[in-house]
Amino acid sequence: MESVGRIHNFGAGPAVLPIEVVEEVAAALPNLLDSGFGLLEVSHRSATFQSVIDSAMERIRRVLSVPDDYEVLFLQGGASTQFYMTALNLIGEGEKADFLVTGGWSQKALREAGRVGDAAAAWDDSANGFRSVPQDGDYSIREDAAYVHYTSNNTLYGTQYHHLPDSGGKPRVVDASSDICGVPIDVSAHDVIYAGAQKNLGASGVTLVIISPWALSRGKEGLPTMLDYNTHVSKGSMFNTPNTSGIYILDRVFAWIEQNGGLEGAIERNRTKAALLYGELDRSDFWRPHAHGGSRSVMNVTWRLADEALESVFLAEAEAARMGGLKGHQCIGGIRASMYNSCSMESVKALVGFMRDFESRHG
Ligand SMILES: Cc1ncc(COP(=O)(O)O)c(C=O)c1O
CB of 87 within 8 A of CB of 111? Predict the structure, then answer.
């Protein structure tokens, strides 16, 4: 790591990638897969790129056990476009959708869906500072809701569901941007899963969408072409020029996941990293973890220092110790360590060691 001057990167996204993937990308830049075309210079209509996108889709199906009748799409416009696109495709005339609002991203998803139809919060924890996710029974879903939307991991506040939320028998739509492929997921229990790639899956500029036959059947006549899921299914995610290099990186990240124990391996490593960091946070009153017990995220760990004035010192010293991306989001301040799949155990150990040292000097 030192040889290429890389730091311990705890950034929330775009986030650290496995060094093996970074090196593969570097090697592909002048010549992708011996095609003679560079990674950034190859046509999406070429056989070379078709093999890349096919490979990426197959790997995703394998790693996430995607049911055969579901479609896998690589779209653009980020998860933020999906806030509106899911609602546009799924809410019919006069229909409703219910939202579990557990942070800034689900607030935004709800706001966008409200442009399409009657979208309402079935649960909203903003008054409590978004410290936990709801348990089944904490909310009820409207009888006539077409679907329920939730955010599986709240990147900003550091909370996460550790169960499949009850949807009152309605289809589930999930924004899994910050924990896809890092925690268990039952794809068949959802009708739309969407995730920006830039945290657990690769680089920014690709949005993974996994969509069920039911969700595709909801498509209406007259939708704007680019916002109609059926457009992208019918063209194999190449209705317009896709993010070719981003899809290549995604394929390489999935290959790396497969070579490192698949989804199970990633889950296990993430649990171990999270246990180490939360263990340190719980050890002393010097630290004030944000999320409540059962809702703690294994991907984004958020905390304050008991003496908040020391937070800027912590960040400056961490940077000097070659640890970056630790500044908490402005909505809660403090410290946030994002530990996506590619964040190594070595990095987390370095952080915990630094924290102990910091406490011994400032505590
Ligand atoms: C849970 C979640 N949803 C949505 C977004 C927005 O994603 P994008 O920037 O790809 O639109 C983010 C970005 O951090 C996120 O963490």
Answer: no
Domains and CATH numbers, the chain: 22-259 (3.40.640.10), 262-362 (3.90.1150.10)
Enter the tokens of residue 18.
Answer: 């496995």
Residue with the smallest CA separation from ligand 1 atom 5 is: 79
Local structure of 74: helix, strand or coil: strand
Contact 239, 1 (CB under 8 A): no
Q: Tens digit of pLDDT for each residue in 156-202?
A: 999 999 999 999 999 999 999 999 999 999 999 999 999 999 999 99
Choosing from 80, 100, 150, 174 the residue with most ligand 1 atoms within 8 A of its CB, the one to mutate for a pocket test is: 80
Indicate the top mutation candidate among 74, 85, 105 to test ligand 1's pocket, ranked by most ligand atoms within 8 A of CB: 105
Euclidean distance between CA atoms 122 and 45, whole angstroms: 45
Task: Kindly report the number of other CB atoms within 10 A of residue 93's CB atom.
Answer: 6
Alpha helices per DSSP H over 65-127: 78-90, 104-113
Q: Distance, CA 182 to ligand 1 centroid (Å)? A: 16
Residue pair 15/177 in contact (Cβ under 8 Å)? The answer is no
Can you give the pLDDT at residue 2? 45
Instruction: Give Cβ neighbours of residue 351 (< 8 Å, ≥ 6 apart).
Output: 8, 10, 277, 318, 323, 326, 337
Q: Find out whether 325 and 334 touch, Cβ atoms under 8 Å.
A: no
Catalytic-role residue among 96, 170, 199, 273: 199
Token pair of 77, please?
A: 């416009």
13, 178 Cβ separation under 8 angstroms: yes
pLDDT tens column, 289-322: 999 999 999 999 999 999 999 999 999 999 999 9
Distance CA 136, CA 312 (A): 39
Q: What is the pLDDT of residue 4?
A: 77
pLDDT beneath 50, residues of the chain: 1-2
- Decide: pTM greater than 0.85: yes
The C-alpha angle 248, 185, 18, rounded to 5 degrees, equals 35
Q: In what order do the strands lie in the sheet containing 96-101?
A: 71-75, 207-211, 192-196, 172-175, 145-151, 96-101, 118-124
DSSP 178: T
